[in-house]
């Protein structure tokens, strides 16, 4: 129902439209009538204020920039129904695609969802606004351990609110792989030439090689990086394809024996093809956290905070989890999961031993970032 709001002056004029006969009332009743008019005016003013507070005025918007297929479209509709704020939505495929748009102010977004190391980079460059957590009361549902982990890239949790998290690992087809899979070594094994789907991401690819060699996945040591590059080059002829999102459909369809994949995608693929299994290798891997942040130049900061708070509501967080299948940091949402297999899935919610052998990415600085990119381009061009 549309709400009609009156200004105080309009209310007074409305209240003063009284039949002329009222002016003939006896004087002793005059004070009572005037008091009734004042009470009526005050009541209408209060109702108008209440209605204004319930919903934003028509035309209010929040501009959101998020990963592809990373929020239930129904959630955006529900947000508008509840708040009156329209969600204008854009998508990106990588952090590196998103960053220059925000950096150059090419498009003004109110809320975006980068990964851990990119949040650190953007904060250090002064591209982010501090979030007023008083406007995010639903942050109480976020797992404190993930807020603590977030401090590695966002000290004090000033700029970010966790949205999703997970690990990087190996997805393999049990009908095509006979030996036990517990090491990154299998994706470098010539035995599976033409049957390996490698992740098309510079940081992820080097993280795998570095951990396999026993090095820190945030290494900036050029000698270590060259060793990692060497085994990635040696792997090149064995790779069927370098993929990100495509790994899901290819593995479901049995097009490859082995693929490097994010845990959230693994949950979906295992559900579609029971022959698939996911493992985080013993050498260790990356644990990542994607979080909502507000750009410094956001023009609708309060709307952005309302949007973030809405997404932290347990029912909404559950709805998103069921749609994207990536692990939710929302403790109450996890309690609401009805499927016990998913609720207790070691893929969706790995045990502490698995998490302990995983490391979050850090922003390594422009010089190291350029070195990584140059080395990765060299790998993919197959220059030896």
Furnish the topology, listing elements before pairings.
Layout: H1 8-15, H2 27-54, E1 61-67, H3 73-83, E2 86-92, H4 95-103, E3 111-112, H5 116-124, E4 128-129, H6 144-150, E5 161-173, E6 196-199, H7 202-212, H8 222-235, E7 239-243, H9 246-252, E8 258-262, H10 263-272, E9 276-279, E10 285-292, E11 294-295, H11 301-311, H12 314-324, H13 331-336, H14 340-343, H15 352-356, E12 358-359, H16 366-380
Parallel strand pairs: 1-2, 1-3, 6-7, 6-8, 10-12
Antiparallel strand pairs: 4-11, 5-8, 5-9, 5-10
Helix pairs in contact: 1-2, 7-8, 8-16, 9-10
Short summary:
By secondary structure, the chain is of the alpha/beta class.
Largest sheet: 7 strands, mixed
**CATH architecture descriptor text of the largest domain:** 3-Layer(aba) Sandwich
Overall body shape: globular
Q: What count of helical segments does DSSP give?
A: 16
Q: Which structural class best describes the helix and strand composition?
A: alpha/beta
Overall pLDDT metric: 87
CATH domain class of the largest domain: Alpha Beta
Could you describe the 3D structure shown?
This protein is α/β, with parallel strands linked by helices and 384 residues long. It has three domains: 8-52; 61-163 and 289-340, Periplasmic binding protein-like II (D-Maltodextrin-Binding Protein, domain 2), CATH 3.40.190; 166-287 and 360-380, Periplasmic binding protein-like II (D-Maltodextrin-Binding Protein, domain 2), CATH 3.40.190. Helices cover 43% and strands 16% of the residues. It contains 16 helices and twelve strands. The strands form three sheets. Strands 5, 6, 7, 8, 9, 10 and 12 form a seven-stranded mixed β-sheet that branches. A three-stranded parallel β-sheet has the order 2-1-3. It has a two-stranded antiparallel ribbon with strand order 4-11. Strand 1, helix 3 (73-83) and strand 2 (86-92) form a beta-alpha-beta unit. Helix 1 runs antiparallel to helix 2, helix 8 packs parallel to helix 16 (366-380) and helix 9 packs parallel to helix 10 (263-272). The chain is globular and about 60 Å long. The relative contact order is 0.15.
